[in-house]
Write a structure and sequence with these properties.
293 residues; alpha+beta; 3 domains; Serine Threonine Protein Phosphatase 5, Tetratricopeptide repeat; 14 helices; 7 strands; transcription cis-regulatory region binding
């Protein structure tokens, strides 16, 4: 079993000692080593510059230990982030060009760059359902909970911050668009399940309003608060009932949502369903003794 030392290319200090065959495999040596370094240092693999005998290991080189000459010492330098390719990077993420996104990240493009509306590459990929790019961005260390700022032309940036900070996270926008695979990936990466926007709407609330049953189930399994209230006192159950999503209503009720919880105007989910003429939902919502009032 070979012992391999990973040294800082700057200070020469030992960052990591790994045993081949125990900590990582010989066939996928480079990729597994980068993941270990990311876990230890918090630096994404895109920022790691590996060197063997002071020779840089290029991304297209062999990833195996044998292919690198069976080194016992590997050096690593951590590259600084740049924002030189921001526009192309964000557009590529929005349009689903995974290869180009990866290429730009390898050039140390900042994964958390934002456009004029405050949208990150992860935000755009989550909204569009580009799961491969969502995974790439998570591997690159993208911030899960950077919120979006809806842009408009106002007199000053202070006004814009005050009026248009909507606060929708990548998880929120993925839930809004019903992107189940993106939602699951973000949850696995420990995105904040109840991170609310400016109006205190959570991912569960918007998914319930849209009727995305599978997304609702995933969020509930991840521990989303079923009775979270928005600024008007509406809960996910209220939203689902108001828009006539019977299956979502049933799922929320099975998860313990409070059927008697009223909004700021005193309206319950049953009232919202009846007011909207959603008969099937009305039949699904439990009635209190004074529900007719």
């Amino acid at each position: 079993m070979s012992l391999i030392q990973v040294l800082s290319a700057v200070s020469g200090s030992c960052l990591l000692e790994v045993h081949l065959g125990e900590d990582l495999t010989a066939s996928d040596f480079v990729n597994e080593l980068k993941h270990l370094l990311c876990s230890k240092t918090g630096m994404s693999s895109f920022r790691q510059l590996l060197l063997v005998e002071d020779r840089v290991i290029n991304a297209d080189e062999s990833c195996s230990w044998e292919g690198l000459g069976r080194p016992s010492i590997v050096k690593v330098a951590f590259q600084s982030l740049v924002d030189s390719f921001r526009d192309e990077f964000l557009q590529s993420a929005a349009e689903g060009h995974a290869c180009r996104v990866t290429e730009l990240l390898r050039k140390c493009q900042d994964p958390n760059s934002v456009d004029a509306n405050g949208e990150t590459a992860l935000w755009k990929a989550s909204a569009a359902g580009h799961l491969d790019i969502v995974h790439i961005m998570l591997d690159a260390g993208a911030n899960l909970d950077i919120a979006r700022k809806d842009g408009c032309l106002l007199a000053s940036s202070a006004d814009c911050e005050k009026c248009d900070l909507v606060g929708r996270s990548p998880l929120f926008v993925a839930a809004d668009h019903g992107r189940l695979t993106s939602v699951c990936s973000l949850l696995l990466a420990n995105a904040l399940v109840d991170k609310a926007d400016r109006y205190r709407r959570t991912p569960l609330m918007i998914a319930s309003e849209r009727g995305h049953l599978a997304v609702v189930c995933s969020l509930l399994e991840a521990g989303a608060e079923a009775d979270f209230e928005d600024l008007r006192g509406r809960t996910p159950l209220f939203s689902a009932a108001e828009f006539g999503h019977r299956t979502v209503v049933c799922m929320l009720l099975q998860s313990g949502a409070d059927a008697q919880k009223a909004d700021e105007q005193g309206r319950t989910p049953l009232f919202a369903a009846a007011d909207g003429g959603h008969l099937e939902v009305v039949r699904s919502v439990p009635r209190s003794e004074c529900w007719c009032d």
